[in-house]
Amino acid sequence: MSDEIVVTPHAIGEHTIEADAIAPDRLASLSQLEIARLPVWAGGRPARLGDIFSVRGERASTVRIDGDATHVDGLGSAMAGGTLHIEGSAGRRLGAGMTGGAIHVLGDTGDDAGSAMAGGLLRVGGRAGDRLGAARAGAAKGMTGGEIIVLGAAGSEAGAGARRGLIVVCGDVGAHAARGMIAGSVIVFGAAGAGAARWSKRGTLVVAGTVDVEPTFGFACTYRPPHLRLTLTYLRAKYALPIDDGYIHGLYRRYSGDMAELGKGEILQWVTE
Amino acid sequence: MSAAGQLRIVGGAIHDPANGVDGEVRDLCIRDGKIVAELPDDAPRLNARGMVVMPGGVDIHSHVASTSVNQGRLLQPEEHEVDPEPAPALVEGEPSYAGTGGTIPSTFTTGYRYAGLGYTTVFDAAVAPVAARSAHAQLDDTPIVDSGFFALLGNDDYLLRQIAAGERERARDYAAWLLGAAGAYAIKVVNPGGVALWKGGARDVNGLDAPVGSAAVTPRAILETLADAANALALPHAVHIHCNNLGVPGNSATTLESMRALSGRRAHFTHLQFHSYGGARDAGWRSGAAEVIAYVNANAEVSCDVGQVMFGPATTVTADAPVEYLLHASTGRRWLNMDIEMETGCGVVPYVYKETAAVAALQWVVGLELFLLASDPWRTVLSTDHPNGGSFMSYPRLIRLLMDRTYRDEQLARVNPHLLAGSALADGLAREYTLNEIAIVTRAGPARLLGLRDKGHLGAGADADVTLYSRDADTERMFATPRYVIKGGTLVVEEGQLRRAPAGRRLHVRPGYDAAITRGIERWFDRFGTVRFANYAVGALGDPPVPCG
Amino acid sequence: MSESESVVERARDGESNGESNGQRRVEHVTCLGCGLACDDITVVVRSARIAALERACPLGARWFGDGAVPRAIRVAGRDASIEEASGAAARIVASAERPLVYLAADLSCEAQREAAGLASRLGAMLDSVSSATVLPFVLAAQRRGRATATFGEIRNRGDVIVFWGVDPAERYPRFEERVAPEPEGMYVVGGRGGRTVIAVDVGDARGPARADRRMQVAAADEERALALARAAVVGRAVASEARGAEQPDTLAADAATLADTLAGARYAVIVHDAEPHPARTDDAAEGLLTLAQALNGPTRCALITLRAGGNRSGAEAVLTWRTGFPLAVDFARGAPRYRPLEGASRLLERGEFDAALILGMPRSVPGAMARSLGRVRCIAVGPRASENAFGAEVVIDTGVAGIHEGGTAVRADDVPLPLRPSLEGPASATQVLRELARALSALEPVATRAADAAR
Predict the structure, then answer these.
(1) DSSP state, residue B103
(2) Residues C378 and C362 sit within 8 Å (Cβ to Cβ)
(3) CB proximity list for A18: less than 8 A, separation 6 or greater
(4) Average pLDDT over residues C361-365
(5) C41-68, pLDDT tens digit by residue?
(6) b/e map of B288-310 (b: 16 or more CB within 10 Å)?
(7) How many CB atoms are closer than 10 A to CB C437?
(8) Which of A72, A104, B101, C409 is most exposed, with minimal Cβ within 10 Å?
(9) C329 Cβ neighbours under 8 A, 6+ residues apart
(10) Beta-carbon separation of A139 and C243 below 8 A
(11) Coil, helix or strand for A220?
């Protein structure tokens, strides 16, 4: 037993690697040799984990990817516990369908990070791709629980179809953030792109920067939302996020919508301190 | 062991209720796909000592192959993604195909899984005749099981027009023509008149005598016309009826009225559970199972299948489109509706039955009450209306609920009791189904009700569709994992593993009719149709029709 | 109907006049020139060529042509027998580490079923043209469901017909005549006169010229307009003073008027085209689907989705029943996985495939993809396969499903129709694929590949 298992990419060639096997709870009971024998896929071709990565350590619930994994998809997908540290960037579907545990990425992530996530923590130091915490393709609902923190920006459809859970993006988000949201919260400290929260039934989209509010959202009031104060205070404390007091105690314009759906959702647009 | 040819199954306990055999230990002989009385001593043997031997299962009401079912498949990629099914490793390099499961598995997976449960005959209960070609293609891709489908006819505009004109003989001839044109096996009625009204803008029908377009066309007239047609044509299976007002509190009154309307006529009432609720709209739900099954018990011409609800995910998929609209409107779940070519409708809404939900718990109880209060298992068939009440993969659990009171009571204690006051099951029903009764409700009974003379029994001349189970006190495990399954003489499951996947046969009828009526039908197509009359019939099928009469 | 019956025999029940004056008439032929699949075409055959067509529109006439197709079978540029070519094709795909099976247009459902079987056995990626054309609509319909109907219901019930950004006269020429608004319907007295036609111009994607009413929507406002209409239908329209200042009120007013008209219909119909149009965004599908669904509260409504020809809808139906997914099905791990966001063209760009089996009409393969295919060992099987632009190593020309080959095709509204071949052609695609499947069975490694992957 070691403190952690260190996985170092050493033979990533021309093909994208799919490595759903690299999830801390799946590795936690395995020896170094057994880990190296786990199946991965290189451009759709079967391979062994040891062909692509060198492995140090065994039988630990902390896994460290010691290098850049931009071309490695599916890391930590469906994980239920343990901790996964990625010292570089990660590919697509990082933490997709995860139900517990924590993933910390120093760099960026590709598309579909935290897709249909049900629990746990996904923390991204850089920027996230499209469909952060969104539904799987064609699925009726997206994220059903857990927390996603992105220090950079995120692409389009962040939080699309979310049913529960919390997504925080410190930078801008692309088009269609919180699209079709059923419930849950998406908090954006930058600007939100076009079509924000369209087709959402319930849930909250908070935008500190600019946002074009869709005409199927109706202005309700300007106020200091107490629930947001609690959430932001919690986030600042738990994740050491540099959240300005001006946001925590600030005035927000509240819009209700999407009136084309249930109309029980809201966009909270920050106005002033 | 050879795939076909001869086989002597030695020393199993035979449960063949159609031939009065109840667990007798004796040999069973198979030659050229049929059960035979004797075989030479040197014929290959299969040791079945300690095993229970039954005819292959017969599903009288399932949804596995129609454009509607396929729309349901299309609708839920996420349930397929979490249930991948690799291709089984068959013997002798026979090709096999990977697929996905979920509540509506892909076609090959459907065939493999049914066979894996020891079922060898399956009927799709709802096919729009205009889309019959697609149903046949899907069944062609559903291996192992012999299969067929019922043609939806209770809301067909041409038929309703004949009823309006008082032309019941022409309606009968039309039904006969349509069954042959579609390659169907039986007449299906879904919410008689109600789907036609829904397409015309009304929400549903209001009682058995409510007019559907014309005063002469009522649910009652539709039921009578089609029950009489099935009987006059001497179809192997009676008219297969899904009553009005499915899923509505107080609908047991409609169900009983429908049964009385057909009094004296042979008729099959399907997924009776969904039609046996007491109470009233806006005044709460209660079980109406006791009254409904009492009528069935007392009237030998009536048969039913239960349509048990099983807790867990389901997909509601039905020609009863107005019901699906209501389910969508009340749950907000995604919804498919397709109005089909002046013939019928289609609705799909994915659903989950939760034991914590009061109505789902009541539905579960109502189904079990129907089973446990039924006095004649020959007229009470096991079904979940797959995938409406739950997957066919839950049949083994349902069998355990029927056979094992302790288990049943444990489950009952877990469900939401809110609507169960006064229900017979909550008051305690001691009955436990015997193995022979299970053999009746899962094979012998449905085969007889379907008029399949060579199925559902193990007498000489029967199809060699045989399932062997290892005895197990856990009857769910026992029925979920047959040791051997033989289909038409071919060993398809050996030691619990699927080893062969021969194609099944198509079961269909081709009743006679007055050929003069086709001129009128062709004119109808020319005037209102978007498919040419000449392109409507599916043409010759690979298997000969099952004879009528 | 068995594959072995001769074409002429199969066509016989479709013939009324039979052979006379050296010409043959084949009636009730299904045309796959577009997704309407009109099945009332009469094909007049003279000297083994299509000499005339009755009731075919210009699109159909172009699709039938004179029925002449090349009949080459080649391996590495040399003429070969069908057995040699199938054997060579089987060796290529069986030895590939990462094969692609791709369904282009003009295949029967029977051929598509064979292809799906091959893909499963090969552990291949299985995809179709639909991934590159109608993916946004397919995904939105999966997320939300849809309220739709077959053409017969529209013909007989539809009294308010909205053509949303589509002029059928251009892309679906017989829709107006066969479905709506022209025909007399069982419940629509007076045909065209009994129906209200609303043309919605979305950017440069214009509705029909002859409409009773017209509405204009900027391409960028398309989804917004649909959301506004749906909000009006469900009775939650936002008062103008509560809306953001920069929103144009005319759009909301137009959407509300449209919603009123539709809600006042007995049976409203919204007709749209799911195929790509340069003037449209991909975002409209969800709005169209949900607007039509919502209209089933106050009245009845169906969304009619128009599709291009060559039995594309058939590929989605077949793949769905064989795998559970309509397109972009990956068998690399044994059991199918759904990868619509990483379909064949993206994986091809990434250089994943080392062999590709391209089935159907090569010119229906999207251009960018055809170019990328040049880098992969390709097998082309289908009508005009020998005219492929991607340098296929094995080429087997087949007939065109519906002209030379029988079987089944699926109309855009999911109604299956028989195909009535009017001409003898080269080997049928279904037969070639069965031959290929037999050739595969003769090769050892393939039988175990999918099983290995599953373990």
Answers:
(1) S
(2) no
(3) A40, A41, A42, A72, A73, A74
(4) 96
(5) 999 999 999 999 999 999 999 999 999 9
(6) bbbebbebbeebeebbbbbbbbb
(7) 17
(8) A104
(9) C119, C125, C126, C127, C319, C323, C336, C337, C338, C339
(10) no
(11) strand
Q: Please tell me what DSSP assigns to residue B339.
A: E
Distance CA A62, CA B26 (A): 61
The length of chain A is 273
| Per-residue pLDDT tens over the stretch B37-73 | 999 999 999 999 999 999 999 999 999 999 999 999 9
Instruction: Between C282 and A201, name the one with better pLDDT.
Output: A201
For residues B145 and B148, give the distance between their C-alpha atoms in angstroms, rounded to a whole number.
Answer: 10
Rounded to an integer, what is the distance from CA C409 to the centroid of its chain?
A: 10
Q: Kindly state whether C335 is in contact with chain A, defined as any CB-CB distance less than 8 angstroms.
A: no
ipTM surpasses cut 0.90: yes
List subunits contacting chain C, requiring 3 or more Cβ pairs under 8 Å: A, B
Give the tokens for residue A196. Answer: 């924000």
Tokens representing residue C445 in the block: 């490694």
- Tell me if A15 sits within 8 A of A70, measured CB to CB: no
Q: Which whole-number Å values give the CA distances from C368 to B377, C132, C357, in the listed order?
A: 63, 10, 17
Chain B partners within 8 Å of A137 (Cβ): 77
Closest CA to A32 of A73, A66, A74, A1: A1
For residues A109 and A53, is the Cβ–Cβ distance under 8 A? no
Residue in this structure with the two tokens 């007295």, named with its chain if needed: C189
Burial of B479 (0-12, 13-18, 19+ CB in 10 A): buried
Residues pairing with C397 in the sheet: C382
Stretch C293-318: mean pLDDT: 98
Distance from CA of B385 to the nearest CA of A (A): 24
Classify burial at B540, counting beta carbons within 10 Å of its beta carbon; exposed 0-12, middle 13-18, buried 19 or more. exposed
**In this complex, which chains have at least 3 CB pairs below 8 Å with chain A?**
B, C
